[in-house]
Amino acid sequence: MKTRVLKKSEITRNWYVVDARDKILGRLASKIALVLIGKHKSQYTPHIDSGDYVVVINADKFRVTGKKMKDKIYYSHSFHPGGLKKINLELMLEKHPERAMFHAVSGMLPKNRLRARRLKRLKIYTGSKHPHTAQSPKEIEL
After folding, report:
1. Residues in Cβ contact with 72 at an 8 Å cutoff, skipping those fewer than 6 apart
2. pLDDT beyond 90 at 138
3. 13-63+98-139 maps to which CATH number?
4. Cβ contacts of 7-13, under 8 Å, gap ≥ 24
5. Residue 76 confidence (pLDDT)
6. Alpha carbon distance 63, 116 (integer Å)
7. β 138-139/15-19 pair status
8. Which listed residue, 57, 73, 126, 141, has the most CB atoms within 10 A of its CB?
9. What does the alpha-carbon distance between residue 134 and residue 136 come to, in Å, rounded to a whole number?
10. Which are the contacts of 109, defined by CB distance < 8 A and separation ≥ 6?
11. pLDDT tier at 69, thresholds 50, 70, 90
12. What angle, rounded to 10 degrees, do the helices at 97-108 and 25-37 form?
């Protein structure tokens, strides 16, 4: 038996819709990351970006366990002295609800050159409507 290596010209990308309503954030993010990477396909090749597109709807209606709404903190820094900014998950959901899902999925992806390309295929929307109906995405339960 020979191992088949996927070529760039053989990649077919599918579209999937994931409803985040009442799903636990971390568990959902890890499953979305697997689809973005392409590990759910039988022809997965580590050095080829063979993942699919993922559209997340109701991204502001996920659940978290424990006291993460108040205790989970997101940090950003302006690279100037005293430029550290902190925001907890509760405030993040009020101001930018899709960013919490983006940060969770981004943290689940491998930190390599393919990460930015994979994140471009992630589309996050807070409502139940999305503009990608022309691609006829399949609804999957993760």
Report:
1. 64, 88, 89
2. yes
3. 3.90.1180.10
4. 7/48, 8/48, 10/43, 11/48, 11/49, 11/50, 13/51, 13/52, 13/53, 13/121
5. 95
6. 26
7. parallel
8. 57
9. 5
10. 33, 36, 37, 115, 118, 119
11. very high
12. 60
30 vs 32: CA distance, rounded Å: 5
Is the model's pLDDT at 1 over the cut of 90? no
- Quote the DSSP letter at residue 68: H
Three-class SS state of 86: strand
pTM here is 0.93
Structure tokens at 95: 């101001």
23, 63 in Cβ contact below 8 A?
yes
Q: Judge whether residue 3 has pLDDT over 90.
A: no
pLDDT greater than 90 at residue 36 = yes
